[in-house]
Amino acid sequence: MDGAELELERRSKFLSSLIQKKKAIEQQDQTERLNVKVRASDMPLALQNKAFKCARDQLNYMPGKLDSKRLALALKKEFDSTYGPAWHCIVGTSFGSYVTHSLGGFLYFSIDKVYILLFKTAVEPLNH
């Protein structure tokens, strides 16, 4: 490579790093605004943000006491309809779990004092 190509590559890497930093700051702002803490994740940021927003919206519309079944159903339906089957959701204030999930389809987070586990499994047709 000549000098101009090296300079172009250097500038491209620099701009890419700035974009990554900006995305990280935006993600942090989003989670702080929604009072979300990611506990563990193997999920793209766009899907995480969708889960955070959906959970926050559901919690905001719940009168009084937490309805964990309703929240879990809402998240499952949203993710099934948007990203295809088979999503699973566990919601509560205290639970243990050990699950197998599809690559890029796992998110465990808390919002306020509620813990949410959202994960996707592969669906294979039954052979009769």
UniProtKB/TrEMBL annotation:
It comes from the Eukaryota. Keywords: Cytoplasm, Cytoskeleton, Dynein, Microtubule, Motor protein. It is found in: Cytoplasm, Cytoskeleton. Its main location: cytoplasm. It holds the Pfam family Dynein_light. SMART domains: Dynein_light. The keyword Cytoplasm applies. Belongs to the dynein light chain family. This is Dynein light chain. It comes from Hibiscus sabdariffa (roselle).
